[in-house]
Amino acid sequence: MKAAAKGPALSLSSSLSLIVALAAAPALAGPVSGTFPSIDGGTLSVEDWRGHPVLVVNTASQCGFTPQYEGLQALYDTYRDRGLVVLAVPSDDFNQELATAEEVKAFCELNYDLTLPMTDITPVRGAGAHEFYRAVKAETGFEPGWNFNKVLIAPSGEVVATWGSSVRPESGKITGAVERLLN
User: Fold this and answer.
1) Contact 133, 124 (CB under 8 A)
2) Could you write out the DSSP letters of every residue in 26-78?
């Protein structure tokens, strides 16, 4: 004699409905990516840094938060030998960036002695946002609300955390998250 199946049985139509629903569901978010034009020429690709945590920060030279460049450089100096990449993404989305990439580069070298990687001036929000920022928004809902917003990417490429302008680069929130990724 055949034993009765345990649990609810699915009819053919229920099974087909479940398959259709699963196929229509959005895929789980994967790694964010993006290739940026470098302020030094060439390109900077987030994919090239897989296996390393990456802190991506939209910056501006004429903002009240501009002194955070000092903290970004200090964070980079502290953790770069352990694998952290800090990427500055100058943006004029809030009308506080200099007119050209050359001016931005000179300003950052003169005032902050920056050696961390920097992109060319790049849109970070709205319809014209760079592909990286569109992917971050699609994955997390996060979009920069001002200059010096921070996005921490895990070595696997997923967004780990985001912070607004008021969270300083050397804060315990950021250094703690970076330390966890480096261990």
Assistant:
1) yes
2) PPPP-----EEEBTTSSEEEGGGGTTS-EEEEEE-TTSTTTTHHHHHHHHHHH
* CATH code of the domain containing 140: 3.40.30.10
pTM score: 0.83
Range of the domain at 80: 32-182
Residue 112 has pLDDT above 90, yes or no: yes
- 45: in domain: yes
Residue 88 falls inside a structural domain: yes
- In-domain check, residue 40: yes
Catalytic: which of 31, 35, 50, 63? Answer: 63
- Six token digits for residue 115: 């050696």
- Tokens at residue 172, please? 């315990």
Annotation says 63 is catalytic: yes
139: left (phi over 0), alpha (psi -120 to 50) or beta: alpha
